[in-house]
Amino acid sequence: MRGIIAAGAYVPYNRLQRAKIAQTLGSGGGRGTRAVASYDEDTTTMGVEAGRVALKNAKGVVPASLFFATTDPAYLDKNNATVVHAALDLPSGVGAFDATGSARSGVGAFAAAAGSAKPSLAVISDMRTGLASSSDESNSGDAAAAILFGSDDDAPVIAEIIGTASVTAEFLDRWRTVGSPTAKVWEERFAEAAYDPVIAEAVAAGYAAAGITPGQVDKVVMTGLAARAVRSAAKYVGVAPDRYVGGMDDTVGNTGAAHFALLLTEALETAGPGEVVLVVNAADGCDVIVLRTTPAIEAYQSVRPVQLQVDKGNDALDYAKFLTWKGMLTREPPRRPDPDRPGAPPMLRTDKWKYAFHGSRDRTTGMVHLPPQRVSVRGGTVDDMEDVAMADVPGTIATFTVDRLAFSMSPPLVAAVVDFDGGGRYPVEMADMDPAEVKIGLRVEMTFRRLFTVDGIHNYFWKARPIR
Hints:
By secondary structure, the chain is an alpha+beta fold. It is built from 13 helices and 22 strands. A five-stranded mixed beta sheet has the order 1-7-6-4-5, sandwiched between helices. Strands 20-19-18-21-22 form a five-stranded antiparallel beta sheet.
């Protein structure tokens, strides 16, 4: 049997209370919160975090290919999937491919991974925003999800695809030109009228392909950027409202290309054996995926469940900082020299250290060196090192400083010296924490982030965050 063997998601730590929008602007906002990627996150870093969770949930499985999808790529002309590939520490023989530009690209990456003969990973990540006080601004959210496909020879299959259907239609309901940070949207009644027959056709074809009726569906994942059209199309699904997977509208927001995969990940984390999951994603047409869980799902447990990430979010983010992080408000930069542009040659020479966070261990003494060294600081042995992966090794803060003068895109900068379990010490920048939280003895884990961007080059590296 071939199907899904693991799934993982990443919901950023920060949340914006929608009420703060109206408090500042006098309009917009609403109830609940939306997930917000931090100043040092982008769709690539979020995709890495989701991929890490998925691969941990199927320990030992190495995908033969990786498909990365987003509407908001960090690079154009350059493949973003290769950065995800490097940070996930995948072998060089693993292909990595981008699918970018539209909300439907996520389904494309999912289909490509599902159709591969060997284990394949679909990583879908999106950052959404809109003009200040707009519904896009308040109702959108940032998140990523990763779906790992394989066969029972690789790991127990937890869900198999029993039917799919796709209907394509060209109409202009939402668009964004290259270089524009926000999308334009046609009138919602037009989108509802345009999507209505498309969704009806796709859902009917999906039921026929799977050989099931609405009464046999246990969970429904219904997503799309045209919210009114999606709500209206529920009549074609024909399933009771209590079977719909919570859309996280009040906590995370609509995460665009990643939303169907995010909700599917949550559905799998809470499903029992033999359940039928219907996925309907309306974007430039409509795609329907019908899955049935297997007995193996009873033993399946995520190392970082979606709901836990939602519950652990921090909703103290202020609206001005949100606008700054989203590039909608330009503030005076720190009065310090800008960081130097990262160089391509040194990044290539140190790729295992920079992207996968590998150190070296002295074979004689067991001393761990961060960054990797040729000469051991204990005993002085030369070129007698073994490679050691440190990205998943937790640590403890040995000392720290809160620096209000150093260059930072969101001052102050919190720097800490971390002692890693099993050996190794390294000074790192902290992420996802209030400076008042930091203390000696705090337990931390590593997270892949963007340190800064100079001359269009993103300087990716690893930071530490508190273990919550």
